[in-house]
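Hey, resending since the last one bounced:
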Amino acid sequence: MNQILRVVSVLAICAAVTACVASKLSTIPVSGRLAAPVKVIALDPGGGLLADAVSVELSNRGFTVLDSATTSRMMARLNINEVEISTSVGLEKLKAQGVDAYLTVRAAGGYDQQPQSASARVNSTSTGQVVAGITWQNGWGGQAGSMADRTMRKGLSEAAAEIAEALARSLNVK
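The structure tokens again:
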């Protein structure tokens, strides 16, 4: 009887451990040096809360980030809209204003009002190329809303910190 109980306990522990998955992050490969160093980043005006949180985290890591309101005012002054901003003409206009890169963050919310998934892309204003990019997926554990699930899922601040750290590593290639 004790042996059966031990086997059942081991199986239950294995099931609980394998039922939890931490957040996942995938980055685009970075090859060599950037054409120009990235110090000043303009934030896409339509990014939402996660984009704002990522911009704060990037600021904490030494980048100068123009918030979405500042970028929006700059776009109006330069007579470019959100579609034109990511074109070569729009990026050249940003470069002329001292901006090194343009950051776009998109996110989807989960059932618990936490971020479920996100993608972020940094385009160089010098070349127009993507110089850093990530996709991020929140973790999960067991049944949605369970204690294990709440423990595994990350909130806005934690997600933004993971995303910003990955972007900063890509942008600080020496």
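The helical segments are 2-18, 48-60, 68-78, 88-96, 147-152, 156-171.

Sorry for the duplicate.
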